[in-house]
């Protein structure tokens, strides 16, 4: 589509120049045929010449437009809006100055200086509008009595701050997002799409008892989030017809709001990252805040089942971390003291490898007896 627009632009420009300029050029040629003086002939020739030229230049122009589009897509709406307003004000000032300079009727001052002044004032207005946009915005926002009496400066939002956080279905059903919100580590606005709400309702009405419990838990979490005063929760009713998948609809919504996606879904995480959408993964957060265990550290665990390898047993910490105990097969359903030997971080979480503490003690006793 972009290629066709570029070709059409070249043809229209060439046709316009040929219609207006070509007859005048031909009139200087004394031996030129009369039919070449016709503006229509000039328009056809101009359009044809520019079309041929456009075939070799359309690809570089298209690449340039794609780069420009990428640059603008990474800029926030407020940045572009205040920058444009500043540039327009700069152009108006340049126009007013140009009237005075043209009246002087001096070659350099009347012809060249207005152009230079226009570029400088437009660029300066854009820079002023973007760098001072928070102060300008605050001028038009009515201050409350609390703000007027406060001596604390308002925090400036950085370019990396994303106000809107789009919740997906897995995060709501998981429920840990409620605890994260209550701790105050999240700021901004939580956004729930009506597509997610429909999916939760569908799960809550499922004939499968397990799915029904999960769906109702998700609805309860939503109601609890709505009552939380530490963060705002908004419903989004906008239609997203670009795709049928709910996860992809959330990616489009986050891109539209210039926000983030909060999810536990590994696949949605990768899709969002591929489309340059910032992602907050609750599982990654949980793994990051788990206490670090050091080889040699002792702990008490309950072996609950056999491991995959011979003689191994499996235990779990309170936060769900799996502990693989060597020689723990013979201590299932027993509480034992173990010593950490190593730990492994995986996509599913952290695994801890340990051995029975009494093995080390028996080994030390054996050494003492041998001496």
UniProtKB/TrEMBL annotation:
The molecular function GO annotations come to: hydrolase activity; nuclease activity
Q: Which residues form the TRAM domain?
A: 292-353
The record's annotation in Gene3D superfamilies points to:
5'-nuclease
Look up the record and name the cofactor or cofactors this protein needs.
Answer: Mg(2+)
Database matches in SMART domains: PINc
Transmembrane stretches in the record are 34-58, 79-100, 106-128
Provide the alphabetized UniProt keywords: Hydrolase, Magnesium, Membrane, Nuclease, Transmembrane, Transmembrane helix
Q: Which InterPro entries does the entry mention? A: Nucleic_acid_metab_PIN/TRAM, PIN-like_dom_sf, PIN_dom, TRAM_dom
Q: Which PANTHER family match?
A: AAA FAMILY ATPASE, MEMBRANE PROTEIN
Q: Output this protein's name.
A: Uncharacterized conserved protein YacL, contains PIN and TRAM domains
Organism annotation:
Alkalibacterium gilvum
Q: What is the lineage of its organism?
A: Bacteria, Bacillati, Bacillota, Bacilli, Lactobacillales
């Amino acid at each position: 589509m972009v290629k066709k627009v570029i070709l059409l632009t070249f043809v229209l420009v060439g046709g316009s120049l040929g219609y207006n300029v070509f007859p005048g050029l031909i009139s200087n040629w004394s031996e030129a045929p009369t039919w070449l003086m016709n503006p229509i002939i000039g328009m056809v020739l101009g359009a044809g010449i520019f079309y041929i030229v456009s075939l070799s230049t359309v690809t570089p122009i298209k690449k340039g437009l794609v780069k420009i589009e990428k640059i603008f897509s990474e800029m926030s709406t407020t940045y572009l809006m205040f920058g444009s307003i500043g540039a327009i004000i700069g152009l108006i000032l340049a126009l007013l100055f140009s009237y005075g300079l043209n009246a002087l009727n001096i070659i350099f001052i009347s012809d060249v200086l207005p152009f230079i002044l226009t570029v400088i004032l437009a660029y300066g207005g854009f820079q002023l509008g973007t760098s001072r946009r928070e102060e300008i915005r605050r001028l038009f926002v009515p201050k409350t009595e609390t703000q007027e009496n406060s001596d604390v400066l308002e925090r400036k939002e950085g370019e990396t701050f994303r106000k809107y956080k789009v919740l997906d279905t897995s995060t709501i059903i998981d429920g840990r997002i409620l605890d994260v919100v209550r701790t105050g580590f999240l700021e901004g606005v939580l956004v729930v799409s009506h597509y997610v709400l429909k999916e939760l309702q569908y799960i809550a009405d499922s004939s499968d008892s397990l799915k029904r419990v999960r769906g109702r838990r998700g609805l309860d979490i939503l109601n609890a989030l709505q009552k939380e005063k530490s963060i705002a929760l908004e419903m989004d009713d906008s239609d997203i017809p670009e795709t049928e998948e709910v996860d992809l609809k959330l990616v489009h919504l986050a891109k539209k709001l210039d926000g983030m996606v909060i999810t536990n879904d590994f696949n949605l995480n990768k899709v969002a990252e591929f489309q340059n959408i910032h992602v907050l993964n609750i599982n990654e957060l949980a793994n990051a805040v788990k206490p670090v265990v050091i080889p040699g550290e002792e702990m008490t665990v309950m072996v609950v089942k056999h491991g995959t390898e011979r003689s191994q047993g499996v235990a779990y910490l309170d936060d769900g971390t799996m502990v693989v105990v060597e020689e723990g097969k013979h201590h299932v359903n027993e509480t034992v003291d173990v010593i950490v030997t190593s730990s492994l971080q995986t996509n599913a979480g952290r695994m801890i490898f340990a051995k029975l503490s009494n093995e080390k003690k028996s080994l030390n006793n054996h050494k003492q007896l041998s001496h």
